[in-house]
């Protein structure tokens, strides 16, 4: 058995049913423990992030609520929103989108708990910057430093794969196939752009994310709306397919081989988790840098990121795929999404939309994950390791653009899955702390509402 096949087998085992059930199950458990906070306070989170006058509650921290959210979204909104959704639907049928929604709705409670604990147990490092995340939660909240070290090792190494080389590889292939740009040229530009942003630290990363993420999201959503307007007559039928085949087997049609309900659920849930990263422990590292007076204020902002990533962006991709009718063609991944966006316009425009989406989404992931990996490395080796890590991160970008990365993909998937285990342990054991913070915040919001009245 060669190394690629071995790591693929291990990755398949780690990301099998047990971990998926644990991730979603934790979200269900926290939903009840936190009294359905994702439904009660989603609006509060969105208003705090996007309305300037809500920033008056800022406290200690490095970046604003908005920039902390954009940094987290930079890392989560990526190729999974384009190729991942297409893979889920091409293999599980339209019903897979429904299970992506369910995963996201429960995942929002997980994301709240991750963020509230990250802010509560964060520290100020020797450089005067905030440092937080599951590793500090495990050490300071549960006295399990050994488990915090394990998370930091997995996170620091996983970043080079899932957050760096596989992203630059996706950009290089997309630009070459659509515009004929050589891998060498792409690697040079990406390396320079990455260095220009991440060498400035979290404030530089947050500033860039605050520009890139909104622009790329608006561009992608507007392109999606154009396709949906062209295929508006198919929208009601698309929702019928989504809800009907979320619970019933789907027969083979066109190039689609059919799918049992178990496959529909598995593809939808796994792609949903990959897309929004709820439960993996990465996003709370960005949340810990936020300027906030109480942990819950940033936590409700953070949980809105899962809503934006999956309920909004992935839904647009899914609806375009289904209404265009190409989801059953037998194609998969980014190629399928490009075909769908080309329907009603032309295939060339579809390729351009998807290529631009992949380029900006993947680049934002590179700079967002740079911060995650940096903080994991700082936890392991101290502040002196930050600059070397940044240089090493920049050096890995061209390698990803120039090399074949199947092995790197597999190893990154393994490490990414292993990150979730210590993080979920912390979430479950400290769920009472998260619930107490949520209850206290609800009382604070009522008090603030009375003061505004």
At a glance:
The chain is built from 20 helices and two strands.
CATH fold field value: Amino acid/polyamine transporter I
How many helices? The count is: 20
Judging from the principal axes of the Cα atoms, what is the shape?
Answer: globular
Q: What radius of gyration results from the CA coordinates?
A: 21 Å
Q: What percent strand?
A: under 5%
User: Can you give the mean pLDDT?
Assistant: 91
Number of strand elements:
2
Main sheet summary = 2 strands, antiparallel
Distance between the termini: 69 Å
Count structural domains: 1
- Strand arrangement, largest sheet? 1-2
Low-confidence stretches: none
- What's the multimeric state? single chain
Keywords:
453 residues; Amino acid/polyamine transporter I; 20 helices; 2 strands; globular
Explain what you see:
With 453 residues, the protein is mainly α. The protein has a single domain (3-445), classed as Amino acid/polyamine transporter I (Up-down Bundle), CATH 1.20.1740. It is built from 20 helices and two strands. It has helices at 3-14, 17-33, 37-40, 42-50, 65-76, 83-92, 95-120, 134-142, 145-179, 183-198, 202-230, 235-244, 261-276, 283-287, 295-324, 333-342, 347-381, 386-402, 406-429, 431-452, and strands spanning 123-124, 130-131. The chain has a two-stranded antiparallel sheet. A hairpin with a 5-residue loop joins strand 1 and strand 2 (130-131). Helix 9 runs parallel beside helix 18. The longest helix has 35 residues, at 145-179. The radius of gyration is 21 Å and the shape is globular. It starts with a helix and ends with a helix. The model has no long low-confidence stretch (mean pLDDT 91).
